[in-house]
Design goal:
CATH topology of one domain: FAS1 domain
CATH superfamily of one domain: FAS1 domain
Oligomer: single chain
Largest sheet: 6 strands, mixed
CATH class of one domain: Mainly Beta
Strand order of the largest sheet: 2-1-6-5-4-3
Membrane topology: Lipid-anchor; GPI-anchor
Keywords: Cell membrane, Glycoprotein, GPI-anchor, Lipoprotein, Membrane, Proteoglycan, Signal
Function: May be a cell surface adhesion protein.
Number of helices: 10
Helix content: 40-55%
CATH architecture of one domain: Roll
Pfam family, one: Fasciclin
InterPro entries: FAS1_dom_sf, FAS1_domain, FLA_A
């Protein structure tokens, strides 16, 4: 009788275990989605729109879920986009909008500590920066990371998301690449003052209208004339004396 009860308990336990294993919900897991990461963080509406419009979001998700290559993304906030000159984004072509978004993405995973030893300029998906068109330089001070593009200087505010493949950092400025927006204009040096050509000529040669003091010349001529008359008179007197 005891054996029967023991067998019944084993059957019940086995049935319960099998039923639980079949009905237990799977652990929540799924592919990484960059737009969901940014939506969860909030305040990145404009950047999400650009990611979708340029189809960069789809490329990021495909890369993260189909390869082991890591990515680093600098995500500007809505306030950062609001601080741009009015109409700036609409003034550039769709190709340039793509380059602008790609400029915010590094094709390698960087932790905050790895920025301290990174070699500038960093390579972005828009370009390698070696030709001077898409330079992206980082400087660090402790845990503070600053990003310079040649057009704007931005600071990394905090880490939005981080795992073994993806790091997303919040930046307080839109990273404007040099190739699209150029460097801030520098004031040209003031030209050296030049003297007009006619003034130089006037200084070098006397003008025809400049009065000339002729009193000295006329006086000299007068003296010479008087000397000639005196000489003639002396000769005449001498000749008359000899004649006599």
């Amino acid at each position: 009788m005891s054996n029967l009860r023991f067998s019944s308990v084993l059957i019940i336990l086995f049935f319960f275990h099998t039923t639980s294993a079949q009905t237990a919900p799977a652990a929540p897991s799924g592919p990484t989605n960059i737009t969901q990461v940014l939506e969860k963080a909030g305040q990145f509406t404009t950047f999400i729109k650009l990611l979708k419009a340029t189809q960069v979001a789809d490329r990021i998700n495909a890369q993260l879920n189909n390869s082991n290559q890591g990515l680093t993304i600098f995500a500007p906030t809505d306030n950062a986009f609001a601080s741009l000159k009015s109409g700036l984004l609409n003034s550039i072509s769709s190709q340039e909008q793509l380059q602008l978004v790609q400029f915010h993405i590094l094709p390698n995973l960087y932790t905050v500590s790895q920025f301290q030893t990174a070699s500038n300029p960093l390579q972005t998906q828009a370009g390698n920066g070696g030709d001077g068109q898409f330079p992206l330089n980082v400087t660090t001070s402790g845990n503070q990371v600053n990003v310079t593009t040649g057009v704007v200087d931005a600071s990394v505010a905090n880490t939005i998301y981080s795992d073994s493949q993806l790091a997303v950092y919040q930046v307080d400025q839109v990273l404007l690449p040099l190739a699209l927006f150029g460097a801030p204009p520098t004031p040209a040096p003031a030209p050296a003052p030049t003297r007009p050509e006619k003034n130089v000529r006037a200084a070098d040669s006397p003008s025809s209208t400049t009065p000339v003091n002729t009193s000295g010349v006329l006086g000299l001529i007068g003296l010479r004339g008087k000397g000639a008359i005196l000489s003639v008179a002396v000769i005449a007197v001498t000749a008359s004396c000899l004649w006599l």
